[in-house]
């Protein structure tokens, strides 16, 4: 009887093994670098540029479907480390500790930089002063009161903008008073537009490519020019100042792929880093990692079209 039980158990094991292998094979056949469906978890502060990339990618490759899931930076990284997300877009590279964790799991993340973004500081339109020193913001983050700032407004306590400013100010925690947070960048913009004296901290892409319902609200805010810690001049979160490396609150954007095979994540990363993707970045107001090329037609003579 025991012998028959072992034989039966072996048959069940072989059946399950073959079934699982067949399922994995079928899934891999359904997805390639240009077809299939995946979900991409995205840092909420850079969602507009990712939405643009996805729209053009899906419009070019009709068999590809990409779902964009916006979350705070802390949530995005946590999902990636716990293998709940295979492809993510973030505003920083992986840390040494995070890379070591992937190495222990025998996972080799593919990290592709594709744009330079900017953190913008905004104020209410009634504020005539459109200049601000970065040191003033850092002092406020360190708990030092300043008459120019009634409060700092962030999108989310776990966002990349909060992490960025905390690192600049070299503080572990944000002040208990004078700092406000919401859930989205749009909410930050609305709050600043309605409250004088508040300084909002948002991803510049939300200002350069606003949704239709935010166009009139953005007209009620100023985008501040910022003086860095080592410069006496003020610079804007514009493509020009980003290209020159002058704007003090610049950061690079990365797409990180942990699929482990040649799937849609690899195809989308290649698209973003390629010529079309870089042109989309350029049009969005951000700075592409690689400047798209231009084709010039040289003529030996001037042709007069008018007779």
Polypeptide structure, described:
With 307 residues, the protein is α/β, with parallel strands linked by helices. It has two domains: 31-116 and 252-288, 3-Layer(aba) Sandwich (D-Maltodextrin-Binding Protein, domain 2), CATH 3.40.190; 117-250, Periplasmic binding protein-like II (D-Maltodextrin-Binding Protein, domain 2), CATH 3.40.190. The protein has helices at residues 2-30, 47-60, 73-81, 96-104, 134-141, 160-169, 185-194, 205-208, 215-218, 239-243, 264-273, 275-284; strands at 36-43, 64-71, 87-90, 110-124, 131-133, 151-154, 179-181, 198-203, 221-223, 225-227, 234-235, 250-257, 287-288. The strands form two sheets. Strands 1, 2, 3, 4, 6, 7, 8, 9, 12 and 13 form a ten-stranded mixed beta sheet that branches. It is globular, with a radius of gyration of 24 Å. The termini are far apart. The relative contact order is 0.18. Residues 1-25 have low confidence and may be disordered.
